[in-house]
Amino acid sequence: MSSKRLLSNAFKKAKRVAFNNSSKLVLFSDCHRGDNSFADDFANNRNIYFHALKYYFDEGFSYFELGDGDELWENHSFDSIFRAHKNVFLIMKQFHDQNRLHLIYGNHDMVYKNPQYVAKNLYTYLNPKTGKEEPLFDGIQVNESIVLTHEDTKQQLFLIHGHQADWWNYTFWRWGRFLVRILWKPLQVVGIADPTSPAKNHKELIKVERRIKKWIYENGNLLTITGHTHRPRFPEPGDLAFFNDGSCVHPRSITGIEIENGAIRLIKWNIDTTDKGFLQIVRTVLEGPVSLSNYISE
Questions:
Q1: pLDDT tens digits for range 17-29
Q2: Using CA of residue 170, residue 171, residue 173, residue 176, what is the dihedral sign?
Q3: Edge-to-edge strands of the sheet including 223-226?
Q4: Cis upstream peptide for 289 (omega within 30°)
Q5: Sign of the C-alpha dihedral, residues 192, 198, 204, 206?
Q6: With 0-12 CB in 10 A as exposed, 13-18 as middle and 19+ as buried, what is 133?
Q7: 77 and 177 in contact (C-beta within 8 Å)?
Q8: What are the phi and psi torsion angles at 169 (to 5°)?
Q9: pLDDT tens digit string along 110-125?
Q10: CA distances, 70 to each of 54, 189, 248, 275 (Å)
């Protein structure tokens, strides 16, 4: 199936979520939460990510994760990931308990396409202190895509991971998972990158972005936000409305997108030092804010 058809099908079947100028939304993707081994890229930024989520929870944001949240190619089970990053999942649970958590699956967590897998692994967790199953993301639905619709302007924002424009990683994701588990995970420990990943293969990255751009153009410049390539994108008004929130596995930083007061911005969280040499986690606005209405096509 062509990327054009895959993207169109995802748009038609997307979960619809309403928002307005009072809404606060934060979008991250490509966390690749692993098992805290040497191959776990997320482990380096775990404290940054945890601090950011705590900030967004306290400030009343809803959290949207645009795929590849959990690294289920390198790791055989969600349980090992949960045990490695339990504090992260418990703060995500706080979002879920207030109906402020929305998950999209990507190619590395494509198993979440199966509702039975989601129910078995994400609904509950084993509390080692009590020896009982306790609620985690009880009843959650992991979607392929989400369409945000503004209650007043009716503007639509299409949220998707982006692997629909990546033939190998969508159609043959099981083969990709097999190669990563058997071959690339051991090599990753010594610094050899997976050549099938668009995040680590510039030629593949360009191809994926070109296909998504073409689809956006053919669909009336629909504002689209993706992940997958790990490359942040923030277009100027008047340009093709193709955004990318980046990833949470940049060296010593994470990037994401915030939507607040009817405006959109690209942000970064990273570790910095004070004038006295103390380490601190800081939030920096990289682009924006720009009113979403500036991206409405006539």
A1: 999 999 999 999 9
A2: negative
A3: 15-19, 145-150, 156-160, 223-226, 242-244
A4: yes
A5: negative
A6: exposed
A7: no
A8: -75, -10
A9: 999 999 999 999 999 9
A10: 19, 18, 11, 36
Torsion-angle region of 67 (φ positive above 0: left; ψ -120 to 50: alpha; else: beta): left
* Tokens describing residue 147: 């369409």
CB 278: neighbour CB atoms within 10 A? 8
pLDDT, tens digit (0-9, with 9 covering 90-100), for 216-251 = 999 999 999 999 999 999 999 999 999 999 999 998
For residues 103 and 255, give the distance between their C-alpha atoms in angstroms, rounded to a whole number. Answer: 17
Residue 285 amino acid letter: V
Instruction: Please identify every stretch of the chain with a pLDDT value under 70, giving residue numbers as ranges.
Output: 1, 169, 172-175, 178, 181-202, 298
What single DSSP character describes residue 191?
T
Q: Are strands 24-28 and 62-66 parallel, antiparallel or unpaired?
A: parallel
Q: Residue 112 contacts by C-beta under 8 Å, 6 or more apart in sequence?
A: 103, 105, 118, 122, 142
Contact yes or no for 57/64 (Cβ under 8 A): no
The answer to whether 90 and 50 are in contact (CB under 8 A) is no
> If you ran DSSP here, which 8-state letter would residue 180 be given?
I
